[in-house]
């Protein structure tokens, strides 16, 4: 019996929606998930570990990777490059590991073009007020930056139709339960492609 | 905002696989599910309640319903008619209720022809030995009948490819978790048909 291919789960949504917290909690619930480590051109912070938090490369090397089409997605944000290697996704799914990417909407749309069979999960805020409250509460943005993020969120919400699942993050525990349910159910899905070569009931 | 349509969940699999127990436990976990009540031509047992356990009709009426194409599926088993009314499914989903049908493989395949968008969940035994053990253990069949059921199970397993999900019922709690996850995740699914008229994030 050939090995089952791993799934690619893409968790995405506007800034401030709580996708980071959800992703962290998800890994506690389902520990055999693999986290997709990004490549960045920024310098590592003191606590950050190479290969765990990021793969740290210099700008020159990052640009070389872009030219060589090594990225599944990449972006230049505030002068720093950040991206996901195609290899990270391919190696993981080939080995039968389920990979989780936590990424903004633009990045998710790049991934979708290359991996249309991925499972795309949109995390939405319960209301604009709640999103604004959360962004203000984390105090990482000034007023101007905050308004920019809210405007971006408005635009990003339009992409929900390109996703497979929608989770409204009203209560963390409920949202977490839904997120875990999506992972568990996808693992029970019968893939028509794989049935021939990998009949899950072939050995009973 | 128009109301979300209800889902149709079809729980199916060979006799003795434990789908009845799973379905009962599922209703305890997710109480807002609706159970699809079948029509039968057999006489009610003492404890059975009309409209809760079954809709009891006489054979003549059952045959009239068949002629009038009122059934989503029906079968004649040991001289007794049993079936699911189209109306039961349509009314439920129109009202935005998620309906659960627990049914054998033949019945499920009839339902699939009429409701291809339903969610079809196949419950499989972990092994033939385990299935035989369970069938023997419930002591409702004689040896000949038991062999017949096992042969039927072999044939029924071939239909797994027509289903959306597969649950191997090895441990009840794990199987139940997977079944509940399928229901929860289906409720988070973004329906492309419904997005236009029923945008789930239209009001935020």
Question: How is this structure best described in words?
Answer:
- The structure is a homodimer of 204-residue chains.
- By secondary structure, chain A is an alpha/beta fold.
- Chain A has a single domain, classed as 3-Layer(aba) Sandwich (Rossmann fold).
- Chain A has helices at residues 19-29, 59-67, 86-94, 105-114, 128-138, 143-157, 172-188, 192-197, and strands at residues 8-12, 34-35, 38-40, 54-56, 71-77, 80-85, 99-103, 119-124, 165-168.
- In chain A, the strands form two sheets. The first copy, chain A, has a five-stranded parallel beta sheet, with helices on both faces.
- In chain A, strand 5 and strand 6 form a beta hairpin.
- The relative contact order of chain A is 0.21.
């Amino acid at each position: 019996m050939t090995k089952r291919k791993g799934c690619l789960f893409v968790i995405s949504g506007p800034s401030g929606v709580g996708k980071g917290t959800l992703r962290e909690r998800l890994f506690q619930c389902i520990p055999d998930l693999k986290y997709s480590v990004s490549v960045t051109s920024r310098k590592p912070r003191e606590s950050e570990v190479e290969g765990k938090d990021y793969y740290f490369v210099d700008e020159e090397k990052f640009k070389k990777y872009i030219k060589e089409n090594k990225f599944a997605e990449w972006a230049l944000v505030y002068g720093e490059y950040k991206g996901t290697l195609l290899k990270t996704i391919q190696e993981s799914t080939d080995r039968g590991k389920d990979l989780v990417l936590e990424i903004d909407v633009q990045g998710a749309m790049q991934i979708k073009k290359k991996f249309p069979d991925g499972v795309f999960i949109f995390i939405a805020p319960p209301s604009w007020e709640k999103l604004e409250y959360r962004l203000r509460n984390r105090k990482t943005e000034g007023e101007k930056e905050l308004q920019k993020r809210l405007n971006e969120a408005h635009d990003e919400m339009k992409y929900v139709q390109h996703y497979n699942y929608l989770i409204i993050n009203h209560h963390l525990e409920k949202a977490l339960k839904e997120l875990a349910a999506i992972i568990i159910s996808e693992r029970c899905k019968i893939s028509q492609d794989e049935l021939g070569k990998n009949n899950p009931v072939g050995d009973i």
